[in-house]
């Protein structure tokens, strides 16, 4: 009896369909020495395919990817819609042309489809309009933007949208139609946003913003976007939505890639796992690196950690929350000892009871070079004030220490100038989460951090911080 049941199970497994998208292809003029290209595909789990393909001696390649769902494959940066168990043949022309040709099912002869001649793409076979429909939409909008030089009229934008909507209607595949319509809506929104940027003082009526009601960040097609496209979608959609509500296009909330407003919107309105796991997570990381930890961000992090389904992303957020909160405003400043130009170890404890203004920089950092002279002016201005010390900490690596020393001499920098770029003193960078420079840190007389990401010394608000710190008891 057991043997019979086992036999039935094996038979049942044997008849289960095995799906695999197969793409045969070649590149004009390519051989085994030619550079290859990447293929990517995304789903709600994130990137499910990332592969570098190489050509054989005849310039050919084969991609076979087991999947049971239709996906958008980004082949050498071109989006191709492929159904599970579909077999396609692709011919990539010379890389300099930036275009490619796709044939129908393997074995069928390629033919030219008139509507795509402008993009140098030739198709054949019944399903081909579906396979390259998204690419055609992207190319059409790119050509439209180029033709109008970034300043089309409202009417022209509407006409372009209607033309692509008509193109989509030629496909009878409801699945690709839904995805293609999303891409068309996305490009339509981008064009309208481009118009608003070119006409910042113009007040558009609510009909102009109607597309915001058609696009949903929870749309399944969102998952087919590459990571950079996903980031652009979220930022553009949030900006467009806020503009429709009367915001000014120059508002920091709209220009900041990691604005608290945008992150709060995502948490309240978005359930798409990729946006939560990728875009929200990256926004938090970026905010921490630029502005540091604060109570309002912490509230966002708590909810984000709860909603994040990617375990690696969740673990990273938990770790970052712990690390950054330790060196946030009002926290005790971690102690450190770093050598100066003469090799003498200088400790933060040496300046107990003083305001310590720190500039973290490097000789190779162009923004640092812009801001450093302002910092040195403050050092000179307050040189007779015993209650404040202006400390520069270089992150130049050990190999560049000679260059750092020469720079100090050329600028007559003979104050508290430290070198934290070697292995013995890198603990400072780790303790203060130095992920970007220039970085300004201000420590109060009581040894607590006043600002872990202070404004740069070139900003008028910087001296106000110094004065306030000096007046504190």
Give the arrangement of secondary structure elements.
Blueprint: H1 2-14, E1 20-27, E2 37-43, E3 46-53, E4 60-66, E5 71-75, E6 78-82, E7 87-92, E8 101-103, H2 128-131, H3 133-147, H4 154-168, H5 174-198, H6 211-214, H7 227-244, H8 252-255, H9 260-269, H10 273-291, H11 295-307, H12 311-325, E9 337-339, E10 345-347, E11 355-361, H13 366-381, E12 388-394, H14 401-410, E13 416-419, H15 427-431, E14 439-443, E15 449-454, H16 461-471
Parallel strand pairs: 1-7, 11-12, 12-13
Antiparallel strand pairs: 1-4, 2-3, 2-5, 5-6, 7-8, 9-10, 11-14, 14-15
Outline:
The chain is an alpha+beta fold and 473 residues long. Helix content is 42%, strand content 18%. The chain is built from 16 helices and 15 strands.
> How much β-strand is present in the residues?
15-25%
**Average pLDDT reading:** 87
Uncertain segments are: 8-16, 97-119, 121-126
For the report, how would you describe the main beta sheet?
A: 5 strands, mixed
Structural class by secondary-structure content: alpha+beta
Walk me through the structure.
The protein has 473 residues and is of the alpha+beta class. The protein has helices at residues 2-14, 128-131, 133-147, 154-168, 174-198, 211-214, 227-244, 252-255, 260-269, 273-291, 295-307, 311-325, 366-381, 401-410, 427-431, 461-471; strands at residues 20-27, 37-43, 46-53, 60-66, 71-75, 78-82, 87-92, 101-103, 337-339, 345-347, 355-361, 388-394, 416-419, 439-443, 449-454. It is elongated, with a radius of gyration of 29 Å. The N and C termini lie far apart (87 Å). Strand 2 and strand 3 (46-53) form a beta hairpin. The strands form 4 sheets. Strands 13-12-11-14-15 form a 5-stranded mixed sheet, with helices on one face. It contains 16 helices and 15 strands.
């Amino acid at each position: 009896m057991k043997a019979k049941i086992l036999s039935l199970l094996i038979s049942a497994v044997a008849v289960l369909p095995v799906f695999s998208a197969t793409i045969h292809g070649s590149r004009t003029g390519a051989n085994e020495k030619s550079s290859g290209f990447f293929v990517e595909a995304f789903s709600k789990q994130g990137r499910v395919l990332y592969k570098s393909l190489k050509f054989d001696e005849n310039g050919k390649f084969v991609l076979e990817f087991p999947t049971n769902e239709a996906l958008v494959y980004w082949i050498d940066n071109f989006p191709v819609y492929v159904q599970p168990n579909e077999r396609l043949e692709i011919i990539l022309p010379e890389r300099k042309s930036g275009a490619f040709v796709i044939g129908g099912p393997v074995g069928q002869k390629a033919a030219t489809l008139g509507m795509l001649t402008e993009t140098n793409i030739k198709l054949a076979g019944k399903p081909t309009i579906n396979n390259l429909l998204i690419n055609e939409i992207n190319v059409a909008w790119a050509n439209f933007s180029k033709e109008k030089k970034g300043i089309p009229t409202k009417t022209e934008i509407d006409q372009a949208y209607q033309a692509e909507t008509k193109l989509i209607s030629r496909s009878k595949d409801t699945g690709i139609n839904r995805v293609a319509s999303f891409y068309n809506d996305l490009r339509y929104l981008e064009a309208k946003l481009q118009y608003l940027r070119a006409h910042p003082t113009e007040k558009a009526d609510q009909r102009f913003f109607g597309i915001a009601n058609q696009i949903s960040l929870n749309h399944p097609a969102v998952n087919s976007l590459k990571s950079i496209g996903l980031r652009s979608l979220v930022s553009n959609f949030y900006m467009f939505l806020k503009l429709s509500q009367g915001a000014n296009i120059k508002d920091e909330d709209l220009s900041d890639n990691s604005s608290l407003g945008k992150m709060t919107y995502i948490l309240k309105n978005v359930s798409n796992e990729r946006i939560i796991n990728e875009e929200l997570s990256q926004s938090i990381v970026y905010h921490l690196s630029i502005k540091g930890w604060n109570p309002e961000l912490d509230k966002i992090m708590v909810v984000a950690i709860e909603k994040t389904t990617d375990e690696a992303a969740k673990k990273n957020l938990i770790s970052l929350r712990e690390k950054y909160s330790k060196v946030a405003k009002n926290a005790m400043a971690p102690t450190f000892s770093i050598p100066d130009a003469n090799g003498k170890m200088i400790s933060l404890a040496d300046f107990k009871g003083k305001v310590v203004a720190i500039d973290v920089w490097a000789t190779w950092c162009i923004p640092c070079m812009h801001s450093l002279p302002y910092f040195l002016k403050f050092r000179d201005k307050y040189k007779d004030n015993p209650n404040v010390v202006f400390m520069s900490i270089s992150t130049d690596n050990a190999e560049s220490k000679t260059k750092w020393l020469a720079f100090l001499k050329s600028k007559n920098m003979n104050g508290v100038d430290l070198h934290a770029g070697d292995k013995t003193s890198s603990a400072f960078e780790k303790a203060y989460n130095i992920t970007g420079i220039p970085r300004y840190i201000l420590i109060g007389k009581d040894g607590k951090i006043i600002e872990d990401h202070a404004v740069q010394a070139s900003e008028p608000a910087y001296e106000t911080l110094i004065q306030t710190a000096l007046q504190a008891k």
